[in-house]
Specification:
The complex is a heterodimer of chains A (200) and B (751). Chain A has 200 residues and is α+β, with helices and mostly antiparallel strands. Helices cover 33% and strands 26% of the residues of chain A. An eight-stranded antiparallel sheet of chain A has the order 2-3-4-5-1-6-8-7, covered by helices on one side. Chain B has five domains: 5-149, no CATH class; 166-329, Sulfite Reductase Hemoprotein, domain 1; 350-427, Sulfite Reductase Hemoprotein, domain 2, CATH 3.90.480; 437-603, Sulfite Reductase Hemoprotein, domain 1 (2-Layer Sandwich), CATH 3.30.413; 613-751, Nucleotidyltransferases  domain 2 (Four Helix Bundle (Hemerythrin (Met), subunit A), Up-down Bundle). In chain B, a hairpin with a 2-residue loop joins strand 12 (225-234) and strand 13. The chains are: A alpha+beta (200), B alpha+beta (751).
């Protein structure tokens, strides 16, 4: 099956310390910098909505946000534009974007360390119900791809997977690891995947 | 944009009504033709607008990031979807919801679309529509197909067409309505959708239905076609009809609708609407958009002449069976409850009781209530939409409506279920109290996403909501029930004219910087179907608006007489005292270090940075111009006072002179010795600012200059109460536009 429009969300450890308002100038600053490959366009502020998208950095290829979906705060990357390449490349691209964004927020002095990846929980969504409806069939078809991907991302570490039960929801997996990871660890693991792909 | 777009057409084939499916196919082909360069850009613009595919801020590919103007290099380069509107730039999809009626399945569809094509949020508008923002135009045919499969259309949600037919969300369950107007609203919506007689309007046409005259209801007075259900006895039998109002509208200069007919029988409803549409299409202005709404045609013709033309048109209409077919079921169409009626259980929960006091209204059907779900700023998440669908199924037969106060209404909730439904709503963040109160603030999108926004209406609304919600338990009851409505510009999408406390965005230059402001609009009335319109009193920096609200509310609580409404209070104490009460808030704080006034709510970018910094040499001229514009503003205020005192002629005269003096201030920038002669000023203004388009707003064009020209031409003509009021509104807009023009000139100097 074709996997597109991958979302990756890194759940934070210290939600109570996060003041979403502080993200607004930071994201505006990212637009000024335009330092990555993606085009960053605008900032949408949804702090007034409970368990909502939080503060969203709208991009052309994808959105970045610190969102509060399901009452859990996380750094999210939402890939909007379709991607060429293999499914593993698409999964890696979304994870890399989320991790790089999270790392950048973790180290931004204006946020004073308030944004911290919890190290244990990652969510992955396929934001396209036509390609990936939330059904057992999708789960069966996609699981080999996900297993390969998480094996690389987590460096072969153990993890548990759970799935949302509501068939109306996006297809997603919630991955939980007993071992704690940093964004730097995970980025390094991903880079090895990218390097291996380029050697091939 | 979505990889799966090509797959949806086949997937939904046979699941969409044929006409809607064909409509989407046509649109998709038009998009392809445009991409091949075979469709002219003005045509694609109107084509997409008529499908609700709207532009959004920065869609010209440029955005000031706080330091400089960035130009976005989109993949499709300079391909446009309309004049100065880039193909790849995010846009907005408006979705029509006739009478605001939705079922659970439709909520689920909206949730999917918000998640997959937008940013996870669906936004309820002040006309009961739903909007999705940050949508790519290539995704819109798929969005439309998925909506069509759920029996929803976006057709004619924008553009010069019949917009969403709105209706009182309490229709059918209201305690004191004449009758349920819902079937009539739906019939009119169906009848006029795509009707050949409605395809050549010069501007949009907004119909609404009300079940009574006394409540806000369907806001008939501010609609092009406002229909109020009425009954009367004929031969001892109660019969239904409609009081028909025409030519109302907010916009920059609001017009109250005129009574067209006090009792129109239902069988004449559709044909008369059709006749009105024909007259509007034939005689309405086509070239000058700023004079193209029905209100201007009726103002120019006079209501009697307009009636004559419509009735003459009506007599020529060929019979159409659809005029009356729906009537067979209109009287019997009924919503049904899911659960048996009941009594509200006794509760000791303070939260529940407070919520019940503001969000629950007893239906006329004993044992049932409506429940309002207050949505902050009209926003709801995809997860909440699905949860609301579940709740609607669990407690009702999916009887939901959107409201013009940007909320949802669930109807037919058994009183016995009220604590349970509150708990269910609260669990998903939809159980906030305060419906219809001061915390239930209405706001248009403003500078967040609207191309016309001047100030951040949503930013201000969020700030006020947060502050007021903290004190909502302790607010004086008189203050608690006030309405706050905010527009990001003069165009009134936030309906600021009909609020107790209305605000619309303007900019002012202070200390060499552009500073976001809001005009404070007082004296409007929400009840009585938007019974009267407020007028701007004074412009205040955005960051001081919360203090404006506090100060006015405190003064109202302290000085109000028994039972006095806020509108009457404003009238009694007078605008002079109110202006003086707020005078200190119009100034910047003396502390130069407070830079917050130079940015807007929720947006840290310095507001219009390009306007800052003029040389010392120009400084003297700057002061003189600012002084003169300030004087013109004062004259508009004096015109308002004359209007309040019933001195219509003097009001119109003062308003006219305010425009002349504002124009003179701009002329003096180039011709310092221009004599103080209105003819000469208008001529010089025309040559230097109108003909050169220097005065033109990028979206309104020369509209505001036309106000000056019209007033100058009419200086010796008789003045009616209506025309005086319009002149005063126009003068305020002209002075605001003069400020904006002056700000723009500052940018040119810097560059």
């Amino acid at each position: 099956m074709e996997i597109q429009h991958v979302n990756v969300r890194l759940l934070l450890s210290n939600a109570a310390e996060v003041d979403l308002a502080a993200l607004i100038p930071v994201f505006h600053n990212w637009i000024q910098d335009q330092s990555g490959e993606e085009m960053l366009l605008d900032v949408a502020d949804y702090r007034h909505v409970r368990s909502g998208p939080g503060v969203v950095l709208i991009g052309h290829q994808g959105n970045y946000s610190v969102d509060n979906t399901g009452g859990r705060l996380g750094v999210r990357y939402n890939r909007k534009a379709g991607l060429e390449g293999a499914n593993q490349d698409r999964l890696a691209q979304a994870a890399q974007a989320a991790l790089a964004a999270c790392e950048r927020l973790e180290t931004d002095p204006r946020l004073k360390g308030a944004i911290r990846f919890g190290g244990h929980e990652i969510e992955l969504f396929i934001n396209d119900r036509m390609l990936a409806p939330n059904t057992p069939a999708t789960s069966a078809a996609i699981n080999p791809e996900l297993r390969a991907f998480f094996s690389t991302l987590l460096g072969g570490a153990e993890y548990e997977v759970s799935y949302p039960q509501d068939p109306r929801s996006l297809f997603s997996v919630h991955v939980k690891t007993p071992q704690a990871f940093t964004t730097t660890d995970l980025l390094a693991n991903l880079n090895s995947l990218v390097a291996a792909a380029s050697i091939c | 944009m979505k990889a799966s777009n090509p797959l949806w057409k086949d997937e939904l084939s046979g699941k969409m009504p044929e006409d809607l499916a064909r409509e989407v196919d046509v649109f998709e082909n038009e998009l392809s033709l445009r991409k091949q360069g075979k469709l002219e850009e003005r045509l694609i613009a109107e084509t997409r607008l008529r499908r609700g595919v709207y532009g959004q801020r920065y869609d010209n590919g440029k955005r000031h990031d706080g330091k400089r103007v960035q130009e976005f290099a989109y993949p499709r380069g300079r391909l446009t979807k309309g004049p100065n509107t880039l193909w790849d730039a995010p846009g907005m999809q408006r979705i029509k919801i006739p009478a605001g009626g939705l079922n659970a399945g439709q909520l689920e569809t909206l949730a999917e679309l918000a998640e997959e094509y937008s940013d996870g949020i669906a936004h309820i508008t002040t006309r009961q529509d739903v909007q999705l923002h940050y949508v790519h135009i290539d995704d819109t045919p798929t969005i439309m197909r998925r909506l069509a499969a759920a029996r929803i259309t976006t057709r004619e949600a924008c553009g010069n067409s019949v917009r969403n037919v709105t209706a009182c969300p309490f229709a059918g369950v209201c305690q004191d309505e004449a009758f349920d107007v819902t079937p009539y609203a739906r019939a009119l919506s169906r009848f006029l959708l795509g009707h050949p007689d409605c395809q050549s309007f010069g501007r949009k046409f907004k119909p609404s239905f009300s079940g009574c005259k006394q409540h806000a209801c369907g806001l008939a007075n501010m609609h092009d076609l406002g229909l109020i259900g009425v009954t009367r006895f004929e031969d001892g039998k109660e019969v239904r009809g409609f009081a028909v109002y025409v030519g109302g509208g907010l916009g920059a200069v609001p017009y109250q609708a005129k009574l067209f007919d006090s009792f129109l029988p239902p069988e004449e409803l559709l044909p008369v609407a059709q006749a009105i549409a024909r007259v509007f299409a034939r005689l309405g202005e086509k070239k000058n958009r700023s004079r193209a709404r029905l209100k201007f045609l009726i103002h120019d013709l006079g209501i009697e002449k307009f009636k004559e033309l419509v009735w003459a048109e009506r007599r020529t209409l060929p019979f159409d069976p659809r005029w009356t077919e729906y009537l067979e079921t209109a009287n019997t169409a009924k919503e049904e409850p899911l659960h048996a009626p009941g009594k509200t259980p006794v509760s000791t929960s303070e939260d529940f009781e407070f919520w019940r006091s503001t969000n629950v209204r007893l239906q006329r059907q004993e044992g049932y209530s409506t429940v309002t779900i207050t949505l902050p700023l009209g926003d709801i998440t995809a997860d909440q939409l699905r949860a609301l669908a579940d709740i609607a199924r669990r407690f009702t037969r999916e009887t939901l409506r959107t409201t013009v106060e940007q909320n949802f209404l669930i109807r037919w909730v058994s009183n016995r279920d009220l604590p349970e439904i509150h708990a269910a709503l609260d669990a998903v963040g939809l159980g906030d109290p305060g419906a219809g109160t001061i915390v239930d603030i209405v706001s248009c999108p403003g500078t967040d996403t609207c191309k016309l926004g001047i100030s951040s209406s949503r930013g201000l609304a969020a700030e006020l909501r947060t502050r007021l919600a903290e004190s909502s338990f302790t607010l004086d009851k008189a203050v608690r029930n006030l309405h706050i409505k905010i527009s990001g510009c003069f165009n009134s999408c936030g309906q600021h004219h009909v609020a107790d406390l209305g605000f619309y965005g303007v900019s002012r230059k202070m200390a060499g910087y552009a500073v976001p402001h809001f005009q404070v609009v007082l004296g409007g009335e929400w009840e009585e179907n938007a019974g009267s319109y407020g007028l701007p009193v004074v412009a205040v920096p955005s960051k001081n608006i919360p203090r404006v609200v506090t100060r006015l509310a405190d003064r109202y609580v302290a000085l109000r007489r028994n039972g006095e409404t806020f509108k009457d209070f404003v009238k009694r104490i007078g605008k002079v005292e109110i202006k003086s009460l707020l005078e200190d808030l119009t100034k910047l704080p003396s502390d130069d270090a407070d830079r917050s006034f130079f940015s807007d709510w929720g947006d840290p970018r310095e507001y219009s940075l390009g306007d800052m910094g003029v040389g010392e040499c120009a400084g003297e001229v700057v002061s003189a111009v600012e002084f003169a514009l300030g004087a013109a503003e004062r004259e508009v205020f004096e015109a308002q006072l004359e209007l309040d005192m019933g001195n219509h002629r003097q009001a119109a005269r003062s308003a006219y002179l305010a425009m002349v003096h504002a124009a003179g201030a701009l002329v003096k920038l180039e011709l310092p010795d221009v004599p103080d002669d209105p003819d000469r000023i208008v001529n010089e203004f025309t040559a230097r600012y109108y003909d050169t388009q220097k005065f033109f707003d990028s979206f309104a064009g020369g509209k505001f200059a036309q106000y000056l020209f019209a007033a100058h031409a009419a200086v010796r003509q008789p003045v009616s109460e209506d025309s005086a009021r319009y002149r005063v509104d126009e003068a305020q807009l002209f002075v605001d536009a003069s400020h904006a023009c002056y700000n723009r000139l500052g940018t040119v100097n810097v560059a």
